[in-house]
Amino acid sequence: MLLRCYLLLNTHTKSDAVVIGCGLLLYLQDPGVNGEALTSHADASEAIGCYSHFVFGLSKVLLRCQRRHVEQVKVVLPVILKVLNVAFSESDEEDTDSLNDLSSAAISIGSSIQEICQKLALISRSRQRHIVESSSLIVAKFSQFLPFCGLSYFGLLSGDLDKINDICKESDVDIDEDDFMVCFSSAADGASLAVIWGHISAEVEEAAVEQLDIVISKIRQDCFRRWQAIGMFKHILISIDYPWIIKSHCMDVLLSMIDGIIPEEHIGSDDDFSAILPNLFTTLMAIERIMMGAPDLPLRRKAFSALRKVVSDIPCSQRFDTLKALITNSDSPSMVAILIDIVKEGVLVDNHQNNLTKDQNRKEFSKLWGSNALGIVEMILRPPKGGPPSLPEHSEPVLSALNLYRFILIIELTGKTNYTNVLSEDSLRKAYSEWLMPLTTLISRILAENDQDDHELAESITCALAPVQLVLYRCIELVEESLKHP
What we know:
This is Aberrant root formation protein 4. GO terms for molecular function: ubiquitin-protein transferase inhibitor activity. The relative contact order is 0.04. Among the domains are: 2-121; 331-486, no CATH class. α2 (14-28) runs parallel beside α5 (69-89). It is an all-alpha fold and 486 residues long. Helix content is 79%, strand content 0%.
């Protein structure tokens, strides 16, 4: 039986071999087929050995497939998981060697899928570069229409689409309102793409009769135009219709607009910025997605740099609320930890500026920033839904929150101040009893349970909680010392 199956795998086309192999695996592990055969230990070990041979064979076949890779993986994975479940559930301790062979075979499937993904990513990047290079001439011809229509890079980047609206309204043909809105949505995408292509290709820039460097320099000098331009990029960054290479170039243009900008307090009404904030917030969320989902490390680094710089460019009066909204709307513990670290940087900068000035309004603003930061700490260490945070799943944001709390304590203790009210007796006792001690109890219980388990997962949990426990004890020491010597 095994020989016949092996021949089938090697004599059919690669795609057919995957389907046949998976079908045979399901056939072999069907209780109605081999249930009686697994009554003895020898037969059980032999059956598991058959599974191992087939899984190894499928891993090799997957690598030889020349097309429809994703479809083949979707066929293989459910079958492999089902076979593993049956084999491990029906085996005993005497089948250890056979199960180890089957596990190795399963790992070979994972290795094959990893290699396939790497090949696909390489092919995708190569194709994207080729498409971009071959499309430059076509885009250049389209860009020749921009000056004819009275459109400029500056107007497109700052969201000034009145020219397009005028063109549509001057038409003698009645335009359906719904169709007009669809047209406007596409125009917003095209506005950003037109400028991005000016960055990609000198031919496109020349065809549009533009000098992008001068346009970007002009936008950098006007904070409102700069925020509008950043908000315009949301159409490209958040869409799934554009390849990573376009988003990478989009990041380049965005960074060129905010690199070297010195954040300063916005002079004007909050209503002016509030009108821009929704688009800016959407751009920030799109940047977060790129940080988590981009396949290339350089692009993820660009996204991280853009996130920090865009946040720092937001007026101080709105910056904390923006960060809090990003934290609240994020379902990634790693991203929450990064955002809390940015909050900590904001507290540091604000404290430094506070030390350089004697302006009472500045000190009041510093107090507000620090108090709000403590609200973030409480949100993480004592979640709104109640109870201590979930560990070890949320060890990263918990560690960042503890570091932020310790940082605020040290600032106030060193400066012999209490702007944030963090050193008041009520605040200290609340932090001790509601944040720190429940967390200590939780970590102690998890580590005690881990001591009874001797497996790799327990070691990983211990490693994840070790830095959390270290900073937690430092916070407890500071709080206890402050309570003894108010």
